[in-house]
Description:
The complex is a heterodimer.
Chain A: H1 9-26, H2 31-50, H3 59-71, H4 79-107
Helix pairs in contact in A: 1-2, 2-3, 3-4
Chain B: H1 3-9, H2 23-34, E1 45-50, H3 53-61, E2 72-79, H4 86-109, E3 113-117, H5 122-129, E4 135-144, H6 158-161
Antiparallel strand pairs in B: 1-2, 2-4, 3-4
Helix pairs in contact in B: 1-4, 2-4
The complex binds flavin mononucleotide (FMN).
Residues 11-12, 14, 65, 115-119, 152-153 of chain B line the site of flavin mononucleotide.
Amino acid sequence: MTERMVVSEEDLYEILAFLFSSAHLLVNEPHLYGTFRLIDAATRLIGCALEGGELEDDKFLRQLKEDVDSRKLLLMTDEETYFQLLEDATREMAKEMKTRAVANKSSS
Amino acid sequence: MDVFDAIKGRRSIRQFTDEPIGKEELERLLEAARWAPSGGNQQNWRFVVVTSPPQRELIRKFAPGIFAMPAAFIVICADKEPDANPWKEALYVADCSIAAQNIMLAAYEIGIGTCVALSYAKVAVSEILDLPENVEPMLVVTLGYPAEDPEPPPRLELNEIAFMDEYGKEWVS
Ligand SMILES: Cc1cc2nc3c(=O)[nH]c(=O)nc-3n(C[C@H](O)[C@H](O)[C@H](O)COP(=O)(O)O)c2cc1C
């Protein structure tokens, strides 16, 4: 596991613009859009991390991004599947982080 | 193309190819907008066509509701009177929306995909486009050659949204 990860300055600015604009818009947008903006921001962040950086070969993050990106727009047409996606992504994150925690413990 | 086929076949397109849109095509879309109806024929709409890569990049960064880079944006603005009353405000929204639909249908006819978006930070877009204080960006239309062919999202049935003679009296097809 890398000790410290930095996104490029350009990516950082792009994500900040997205987050600030989202916060501003969400004052009036439907509350479910908030969930959407969060997972969208998450996959954008993964995209930046995968692009040519140290995490380029991270299969877990690549797969997670693909899963979320392919189903996130279901918010518009199939809320149940969309809610399932939020649950699945959280579970997958927990599984992965547990595996990493165990691996870290046994290596230290 | 039959108008009704265009109305039914148009979809919101959110993935585009890199192919640029020609000036002629863009002008045709502006013409379609120009011929839209407007309250009192006031035509308070203004259209900013954005094709340059740096400007497109900037707008997209402040538009959480726009998912992929389009070949062009048409930012539909209202040139507002100072202290416009609620009636005027409603006209700005209605006029710009109707112009947007004209743009989208005309685009569909010539194979250009569109999506109208409201989820962008107006303050940021005003800054980027250097809009005068009285000009408000009402809607953004993204434009590009489609890289997807989405299924039509469901629509409510006619008998759920249309009534005969009185609200609540069922429309029977
Ligand atoms: C006023 C308005 C605002 C919209 N804003 C967005 C937006 O910010 N982002 C987006 O992807 N789609 C946006 N849409 C597109 C709708 O999601 C879309 O029209 C709807 O799901 C029906 O799909 P269709 O256009 O393919 O028939 C907007 C549509 C309208 C009319």
